[in-house]
Fold this protein.
Amino acid sequence: MHLIETRNLTYTYPGNVTGLDGVNFIAPRNARIAVIGANGAGKSTLFKHFNGIFKPTSGSVLVRGEPITRENIREVRRFVGVVFQNPDDQIFSPTVEQDVAFGPINLGLDEETIHHRVEEALRVVGIEHLKDRVPHHLSGGEKKRVAIAGIIAMEPQVLVLDEPTAGLDPQGVRDLVGFINSLSRNYGMTVIFSTHDVSLVPEVADIIYVMHRGRVVAEGDCDEIFTRPDLLSSVRLDVPVLPKLISSLRDQGVDITMAYTFTEAEKQFLAAYRRNA
Ligand SMILES: Nc1ncnc2c1ncn2[C@@H]1O[C@H](COP(=O)(O)OP(=O)(O)O)[C@@H](O)[C@H]1O
Ligand SMILES: [Mg+2]
């Protein structure tokens, strides 16, 4: 059984605007999934179906094999934590610590567990130092981390992050990549995130869905997606710089193995260099 599955999911906004058009999406256990697509591709609309904010116009959404109903929606929201694009919508307490504690308090956990979860969530996203600050006075990137910590503190099995890198500085992006990978490795969490910045995707995703105009136009791993520059440019996206450079060198006859991440590419460049030295 998949953690989340959509079948032929279609969503039409008022005024007959297509949000989603027949999306089939699967989130297996312990996967890191990137949903990439240009502005307006349907990423946020898709994510709003994962915890029952939107109801399908047609098709279905299954969470652990079950449709979302009025009866199970609380449980679904505990299982699937969604962090939306605009952190202001998700932050409302007088201090960061209280804000992150809000979810666990609502779950009815005891004080010690709450304390422990809040400390852990603040640590994971690297904002222990902000715990006594007023959330509304933080920078955009800091607010985003607070919103993410608030969801992590609920310990969902599936963490959904809508455009998590928007508004982050380079160190913020590196930190995000680090903690997505650590949540996956250390907690077995499934992480689904959207972005139109493809450069970080190989570092942080096993499965990639490419969306365009409300549809999934391709899905697969880095090898299946980032070796298709024509597909990506047709949907206003790009190939990350490392595979782009390597495939251009290969086209010019250089004997080098394809690589997607920095570490892998470095290894292949060194190997190619040594073969020729
Ligand atoms: N509230 C809304 N009312 C009408 N159309 C909307 C609304 N929100 C999004 N859309 C449209 O739905 C499509 C998908 O949007 P969205 O899911 O926000 O894309 P993405 O998150 O990939 O940028 C776009 O064409 C967008 O204009
Ligand atoms: Mg969006």
The two ends are 52 Å apart (CA to CA). The longest helix spans residues 170-187. The chain has a mean pLDDT of 95. The pocket of magnesium ion (ligand 2) is lined by residues 43-44, 85, 162-163 (CB under 6 Å).
